[in-house]
Amino acid sequence: MPEVYVHLLEGRTVEQKRALVAAITDAVVEHIKVPPEVVMVEILDVPRHNKAKAGVLFCDR
What is residue 48's predicted lDDT score, i.e. its pLDDT? Predict the structure, then answer.
């Protein structure tokens, strides 16, 4: 069973997440040749104060 993990900064809408998981599922089905029922997608919402780039938290940008 293919599993895809997506790390995102929090703040996306449920509609955006629905569209994302549908597109990811379609891509896995097309390229890995598995039925959609076996594709797992997990979105991990990360608070802006828990992620940094170049030593600066995203909440401080």
Answer: 97
